[in-house]
Amino acid sequence: MADQPDIAHMRRAVALASRGLGTTSPNPVVGCVILDADGEPAGEGFHEYAGGPHAEVNALRAAGERARGGTAYVTLEPCDHTGRTGPCSLALIEAGVARVVIAVDDPNPVASGGAERLRRQGIRVDTGVLTEAAEAGNAAWLTFVRRRRPYVTWKFAATLDGRSAAEDGTSKWITSAEARADVHRLRGEQDAILAGIGTVLADDPQLTVRPPRGRPPLRVVLDSEGRTPPGARVLDSAAPTLIAVAEGTEVAHADVVRLARTPDGIDLDGLLAELYRRQVVSLLVEGGPVVAGSFLRAGLVDQVVGYLAPALLGSGAAALGPAGVTTITDTHRLIFHEISPIGPDLRFIARPAPPKETDVHRNR
């Protein structure tokens, strides 16, 4: 069992790791805290960008000679391979640390093995400290490695009665400037942003991050019949764009992936496989309701981020289209992980509830 100091230091490492969101892909976000031999903080660091020094190296540089005989807290098992940087396991050994505490074992067979190498060198290794929090912070990369597809977040903005637009189609602005700024922060943490052709034709969105931050996310348009206009803003030079069309569809003005037709449009599993091939770790699904329903119906939504305005419309477009629910027992159940005010609005983050072994109890 981890003691309270271990938990506190690992919690700091998890917070450090989050600073790398949006800049480390296709690598994981990782944080590291180094204590000296007396248990006093000596250095800390996080993985800042893909191809740059890993969290352990940054923390060891900050600690210097004080790392010798000390303890390293790392949110992900130190890598044991040479890629664009050397093995972090070797860096910890050379620094002379006496103990390494790990939150999550590395599921990537190419990089794993660091814990075993450390143990062979006589270093004490403890694992499983604050695992749930560390996995939540690295959910996108872990999904990418374990399931070989991007981590999918569905984002929507709506009134309290679930309307994304008024009866006449107007929708600017349902939520506040503060909420819209937070959406751009969320976009900046993604590798790709997806919208359906209905949203592109109705709103002509640019699907970019403002202000720009690092590498712009790939823009993806789900457009089975290839109706994206050549002059659409989503095709401008601000960011790369991929148009996903059905097999047999011709589009000459964009990077195109052709996917099998399905009763719901085009093959979403095939799209995610293509994005995985392109090393897209995280995908933000922004619109519209039909697209969101398709992803939910296919069981491909890993996280929902909703922005709710304290307003009521009573009619108009719903935020979510048909999602494969015909009876209450088919409901897509979620668990709230965060609820917080954003200006006058409310933001929530929810993730699918784990499946139950027994049926949902029915009211009698």
Structure description:
It is a single chain. By secondary structure, the chain is α/β, with parallel strands linked by helices. It has helices at residues 4-17, 55-63, 88-95, 114-120, 131-137, 139-147, 177-188, 197-203, 268-277, 289-297; strands at residues 31-35, 41-46, 71-76, 99-104, 124-127, 151-159, 192-196, 218-222, 241-246, 255-259, 261-262, 265-266, 282-287, 303-309, 334-342, 345-352. α3 packs parallel to α4. Residues 358-364 have low confidence and may be disordered.
Blueprint (SSEs and pairs):
Elements: H1 4-17, E1 31-35, E2 41-46, H2 55-63, E3 71-76, H3 88-95, E4 99-104, H4 114-120, E5 124-127, H5 131-137, H6 139-147, E6 151-159, H7 177-188, E7 192-196, H8 197-203, E8 218-222, E9 241-246, E10 255-259, E11 261-262, E12 265-266, H9 268-277, E13 282-287, H10 289-297, E14 303-309, E15 334-342, E16 345-352
Parallel strand pairs: 3-4, 4-5, 6-13, 6-14, 7-8, 7-13, 8-9, 9-10
Antiparallel strand pairs: 1-2, 1-3, 11-12, 14-16, 15-16
Helix pairs in contact: 3-4
How big is the Rg?
Answer: 23 Å
Determine the strand fraction and express it as a percent band. Answer: 25-35%
- Which consecutive residue ranges, at least 5 long each, have pLDDT under 50? 358-364
- From N to C, what is the helix and strand string? HEEHEHEHEHHEHEHEEEEEHEHEEE
Q: Please give the count of helices.
A: 10
Strand order in the sheet with the most strands: 10-9-8-7-13-6-14-16-15
Q: If you average the pLDDT, what whole number results?
A: 92
Beta strand count: 16
Structural class assignment:
alpha/beta
Q: How is the biggest beta sheet arranged?
A: 9 strands, mixed
Share of helical residues: 25-40%
The span between the termini is 44 Å
